[in-house]
Specification:
The chain is mainly α. Helix content is 66%, strand content 2%. It has one domain. The protein is built from eleven helices and two strands; from the N terminus they run H-H-E-E-H-H-H-H-H-H-H-H-H. It has a two-stranded antiparallel ribbon with strand order 1-2. Helix 2 packs antiparallel against helix 4, helix 4 packs antiparallel against helix 6 and helix 10 packs antiparallel against helix 11. The protein is elongated. The termini are far apart. 40% of the residues are buried.
Length: 285
């Protein structure tokens, strides 16, 4: 048999197995695509601008001192950092994934064997990265208006990352109840506005009684805003700055554990709901 003679059809001994690609590498590849599409998507730029707009709105609030060196207006602007993931997470994935479902892009991805973690991980990664970028811009605004920097930047980053993941899952959960991208844009505004007003960025929670604050503390938009206020001021914002005593780093992280737990619990619940109810096919009942 010569070198050019073809091997028998059933002989696969010389064939190399096709290399498998893990879901993490697929998620990274999809995340790169999501970045490119995000930059080309005009509505996404609106979602990027909204948190900065909300931060500017707090400038007109009275800046009566809440704790030494930090006023109410300043704390309200800092709290808007917690709403960045809300705006991007609820608004962007719900819109683009509904459009992709209707154009059968999601169905083709699933048929081709791309795992759910990679598909969802790509868009969630994009939301997290852009949320962190907007966080830096809001921090620049806080420094420009009030001259303050976060005392614990790591806590600030953790708050933004967890809220971005949480609200991205919430945005994905909107897609099963809408029929097209236009309706997704309108429907997503309802939970977005409600959670924004309850999150402490537009209406400071310091005005509320302690009992109401404890109940609202379980609302998903509240923990990230309180973590941002705590990270900036160095005071325990989770109890409404009750004792007025500045805390050490370890004390701040211990105080933040319930809020981190609330966000992790929401992430787990929303992830299960997305896995159960997310629709890949527009013709699926």
């Amino acid at each position: 048999m010569t070198a050019n003679t073809a091997a028998p059809a059933g002989d696969t001994t010389g064939a190399r197995p096709r290399p498998t690609v893990g879901w993490t590498r697929q998620a990274i590849r999809l995340a790169r695509t999501e970045f490119t599409l995000f930059m080309r998507y005009k509505t996404a730029w609106m979602y990027l601008a909204l948190p900065l707009f909300f931060a500017f709105m707090t400038v007109n609030l009275p800046n009566d001192e809440v704790v030494p060196g930090f006023g109410m207006g300043q704390m309200a602007m800092v709290a808007t950092i917690g709403s960045i993931g809300l705006v991007l997470g609820v608004g962007h994935p719900s819109n683009v994934f509904t459009a992709r479902r209707e154009s059968l892009v999601l169905k083709r991805l699933r048929v081709s064997g791309v795992p759910q973690l990679a598909i969802f991980g790509g868009v969630i990664t994009a939301v997290v990265v852009f949320s962190l970028a907007i966080m830096v811009m809001v921090a620049v605004l806080v420094f420009g208006f009030f001259g303050s920097l976060p005392r614990d930047p790591l806590m600030l980053v953790v708050a933004v990352v967890l809220s971005s993941v949480m609200f991205s899952l919430m945005g994905l959960l909107i897609t099963p109840v809408v029929r097209n991208a236009e309706s997704a844009q309108m429907i997503s505004m309802l939970p977005m506005m409600v959670l924004l007003f309850l999150g402490g960025g537009l209406i400071p929670l310091e005005f509320l009684p302690e009992s109401a604050r404890m109940v609202i503390g379980f609302v998903p938009s509240v923990p990230a805003g309180e973590m941002a206020q705590t990270a900036y001021s160095g005071y325990d914002a989770f109890r409404g700055f009750g004792d007025g005593q500045e805390k050490g780093y370890l004390e701040l992280w211990i105080a933040a554990l319930p809020s981190i737990g609330i966000m992790l619990a929401w992430i787990a619940v929303l992830a299960l709901l997305v896995r159960r109810y997310f629709r890949w096919d527009p013709r699926q009942p």
